Amino acid sequence: MNTEASSIVQTSAIARQRLGLDFLAVRSASAALAAPLSAEDCVVQTMPDVSPTKWHLAHTSWFFEQFVLGPHSPGTYSPLHAGYADLFNSYYESVGPQFPRPKRGFLTRPSLAEVLDYRSEITALVGDLIATCDESVLRAIAPLISLGIHHEQQHQELILTDIKHVLAANPMMPIYRPAEVVQEDAAECAWVSFEEGLFAAGADLAQPDLSSRFTFDNEGPRHRVFLEPFELATRPITNGEFAEFIEDGGYRRHEFWLAMGWDLAKRRSWDAPLYWFPTKGSAQGWDQFTLHGPRRVNPNEAVCHLSYFEADAYARWAGARLPTEFEWERAVQSEVPPTVVPAENESDLHPAAARLVPASCFQQLTGAVWQWTSSSYAPYPGYQPAAGAVGEYNGKFMCNQYVLRGSSCVTPKGHARPTYRNFFPPEIRWQFSGLRLARRI
Fold first, then answer.
1. Domain spanning 3-168: which CATH class is it, in words?
2. What global pTM score does this model have?
3. What is the CATH architecture of 191-440?
């Protein structure tokens, strides 16, 4: 074998090994997130947007079975549990019917133990396929397994987001995971200016090889965007700053609100971010429910659990606006990038205060809260969904949603990137969503 051929074989072997290790790591991480929960915790659904932990664990296994094992196993593959196909199919119409999303909490069977057994079986089968398949099969399954890994990371974030809503509904306010309360001063907020001009936005979706960095199809194609001059705040808005909006009657002053948001806020009696509640025995002050149990609202932490409507109303009250998704990306991908300072307490499942660093540094672009933008979730020029059922992953949701950028304190490590486009309807509040201000120069 010549040197070039030997190098190709070695590179392929390393890529195969890395794919297998990444797959096993993500499967273990999901199980670890469920470990602090009881079987009863794992079946509860407190609203239609929340899925039970048990369902997340089963669905992510179904995904690998449906899109990897079924089409690519040697010989004829038979599903491990035929009845699971409808129960744990989320929204893939091309694959078959789905059990109604608002009724996932009705599924007391299969039990949590049976779901965990199912996960173990799927993990073993996929791991064996990665290790033993020939090169042609590996090239076919590698993009699907990478998609499945990142899909499961999204569900890991949802496990935490959803179980927070579940635990918050319990008057005992149970703790998911204990954590030390850290009190820190707030970093000064400043503005960074950007001149007008064209910049290249989005990810390059050229045909990936086994070593390529993963991106979802909605992150591209890469294209040019013209931006007017703008300024972007160096950190997200804090609890203390948002409390000033509340104290100034922000939830009672229609002039700051979009009409749909104003009607919704009145109908649902919003008067503070989700999970905030008045401090007991005090005429002023707020407490909040966290995955670490109830805490006093720390004025220096990034505010979270805001709908798009609340974020937009705050921005108007503050005499600013929400950035577009391209302004946010321009700040991250500038030619001489400002210093990006990570969040403190990365093991804490709650936004931390921004670090005290020079005011010109961007802080918490990732790792604290998802940041609402004013951009509607829509396809980039030239966007084409993937062929087949996996093409339903992103494209069909490009309507009536807004883009969020960055990541949050419950986003799995390594999942965030500058081109990542999260998206949700404007009324949702249970996500770890906050805001960063922008303004035109």
1. mainly alpha
2. 0.94
3. Alpha-Beta Complex (3.90)
